[in-house]
């Protein structure tokens, strides 16, 4: 599992980006990859990365506790 910080997430459009801790790259996240979680900008998250149609996608996204 990777970790990172939510850079941007538009709830009405259902997508955003997470900055991965290890590589500092932007990973696309779609609302379908959240497993019912709610995320906002600056939230720390844990996720898996899969290859999507247009690049890397974050899936199985979970919000981490602030103490992480």
TrEMBL record:
<dbReference type="Pfam" id="PF00313">
    <property type="entry name" value="CSD"/>
</dbReference>
<dbReference type="InterPro" id="IPR012156">
    <property type="entry name" value="Cold_shock_CspA"/>
</dbReference>
<dbReference type="InterPro" id="IPR012340">
    <property type="entry name" value="NA-bd_OB-fold"/>
</dbReference>
<dbReference type="InterPro" id="IPR019844">
    <property type="entry name" value="CSD_CS"/>
</dbReference>
<feature type="domain" description="CSD">
    <location>
        <begin position="1"/>
        <end position="63"/>
    </location>
</feature>
<dbReference type="InterPro" id="IPR050181">
    <property type="entry name" value="Cold_shock_domain"/>
</dbReference>
<dbReference type="GO" id="GO:0003676">
    <property type="term" value="F:nucleic acid binding"/>
</dbReference>
<keyword id="KW-0963">Cytoplasm</keyword>
<dbReference type="InterPro" id="IPR011129">
    <property type="entry name" value="CSD"/>
</dbReference>
<dbReference type="GO" id="GO:0005829">
    <property type="term" value="C:cytosol"/>
</dbReference>
<dbReference type="InterPro" id="IPR002059">
    <property type="entry name" value="CSP_DNA-bd"/>
</dbReference>
<protein>
    <submittedName>
        <fullName>Cold-shock protein</fullName>
    </submittedName>
</protein>
